[in-house]
Design a protein that fits this description.
The protein has helices spanning 3-16, 26-39, 55-58, 73-80, 132-140, 370-378, 383-400, 405-421, and strands at residues 63-64, 89-92, 95-96, 108-111, 144-149, 155-163, 168-170, 173-178, 183-192, 199-208, 213-221, 227-236, 241-248, 253-262, 268-277, 282-291, 297-306, 311-320, 327-337, 343-352, 357-366. Strands 1, 4, 5, 7, 8, 10, 12, 14, 16, 18 and 20 form an eleven-stranded mixed β-sheet that branches. A ten-stranded mixed β-sheet has the order 3-2-6-9-11-13-15-17-19-21. It has a domain at 3-264. It is an alpha/beta fold.
């Protein structure tokens, strides 16, 4: 580990003594501190971090955000618009804000810091030693949400994690439990109230019970100076269905890790991802689907759009265990480069240890189709609008898979706005 990374580890460990955990988070703190002290921040010598330099993050002297932050409700509502069908549950710099909008469309939502004891599942799906940023989250977590879905009536929960404090780091934790037979959608929405340098290090643990169905939407739309590390660890029981939608619309540094294990026969997982890089942003996606039992299905589609001097990374791993016969797995990572200086490193991986399976994987890197561009131009559409139409069309397949048409519309508008605002409209 380099000197810069060592110093950053020590600074993070020192922050733990400044802010004792509340509620049932004490055990999470103890295990996280021990794990992060051993691991520290990874460097590029480690294969999983080969293209992800953490030096820019490590050079910043991060602080703990103050417990009481003055935030205007109007500012929060402006940042969190559009509200996707229900009143959001709001966290500012990682802490629940009871005085701001605090309801949910359906489902049970509780703030972890307000619970006397930690839920039994907390820390078991995303273990502290499984990932450096999971250990760091446990060491410094101040609050988060426990979401419980019950019953067959579809329900919707919208969690908003807003960042407000300059040079502060927040470490929210979310535990989602979809009870057997339940149906629901949970939107985890990361936004910036102002253009600040902020680190959001979020960990989500997801348990999908037998015959339950969950759509998990992780929307990252923070500012261009934000650093974001997101880790999702999911487990799907017999005949359960988990559909994840990871939507990354930029940031100075974004790392998304998503690990899903299919543990019951008939379980299904669909992973959809859309990531946009502009300027000199780094967007890094690592996924892992573990087929541990027979007769399960997975379908993964991640699409990248990269402009300016941005860099994208995709590492998708699908593992089929020896006993996981009758597995069906598909994986695809198409990428669209809008400039000569943008780059993508794509590595889809299949590890198959069973012989009765149907599996495929692939990736593609390309530019806008010149023939399609010529066709639109011949119909009187100017070149900028033609390029914009083709780029939105490329993203459309992922957006169309979102659980609500209004959500797809809103994210599509945000996608186009981000490109235009960066001065790199396609």
């Amino acid at each position: 580990m380099s000197r810069i990374l060592e110093e950053a580890r020590d600074r993070f460990l020192a922050l733990a003594g400044e802010a004792p955990p509340a509620g049932g988070l004490a055990l999470l703190r103890e295990v996280g501190l021990e794990a992060f002290a051993e691991q520290g921040l990874p460097d590029t010598k480690q294969e999983e971090w080969r293209y992800t330099r953490l030096t820019p993050l490590a050079e910043i002297a991060w602080t703990n955000a103050p417990a009481a932050i003055g935030v205007k409700q109007s500012s929060l509502e402006a940042a969190a618009e559009p509200v996707f069908g229900c009143e959001p549950v709001v966290f500012v710099d990682g802490r629940h804000r009871a005085g701001l909008p605090g309801g949910a469309g359906a489902g049970e939502v509780a703030a972890l810091a307000e619970s006397a004891e930690a839920p039994a599942l907390l820390g078991t799906l995303a273990e502290a030693r499984s990932h450096p940023f999971v250990g760091l989250n446990g060491a410094l977590c101040q609050d988060g949400a426990r979401v419980t879905l019950r019953g067959e009536a579809p329900c919707l929960v919208h969690l908003v994690f807003a960042e407000a404090t300059e040079a502060a780091a927040s470490h929210p934790r979310v535990l989602i439990e979809a009870a057997p037979g339940s149906r629901g959608t949970v939107i985890v929405d990361h936004v910036s109230l102002e253009e600040t340098t902020h680190l959001a290090n979020a960990v989500l643990e997801v348990e999908v019970g037998a015959n339950a169905s969950l759509d998990l939407v992780v929307l990252q739309r923070q500012g261009k100076r934000s650093f974001h590390a997101g880790h999702v660890a999911g487990r799907v029981e017999r005949d359960g269905r988990l559909r994840t939608h990871t939507l990354t619309l930029g940031g100075a540094f974004v790392r998304n890790d998503l690990v899903v294990t299919l543990v019951g026969e008939g379980a299904e997982c669909a992973m959809k991802g859309l990531y946009l890089g502009t300027g000199e942003e780094l967007i890094d996606n690592h996924t892992w689907i573990d087929h541990s039992v027979p007769q399960c299905r997975s379908d993964e589609l991640y699409k990248g759009v990269l402009a300016g001097r941005s860099q994208g990374v995709f590492r998708g791993r699908v593992v089929v265990r020896p006993d996981a016969q009758k597995t069906e797995a598909q994986q695809s990572n198409p990428n669209l480069l809008l400039s000569d200086d943008a780059e993508i490193d794509s590595k889809p991986q299949l590890e198959i240890y069973a012989d009765d399976v149907k599996c495929s994987h692939g990736s593609a890197i390309g530019r806008l189709d010149p023939e399609a561009l010529f066709y639109l131009r011949s119909r009187g559409i100017d070149v900028d609008e033609a390029r914009a139409l083709l780029t939105r069309g490329f993203a459309g397949e992922v957006l169309a898979a979102l659980p609500e048409p209004t959500l797809a519309e809103a994210v599509g508008a945000l996608f186009s706005e981000r490109l235009e605002r960066a001065g790199e409209s396609p």
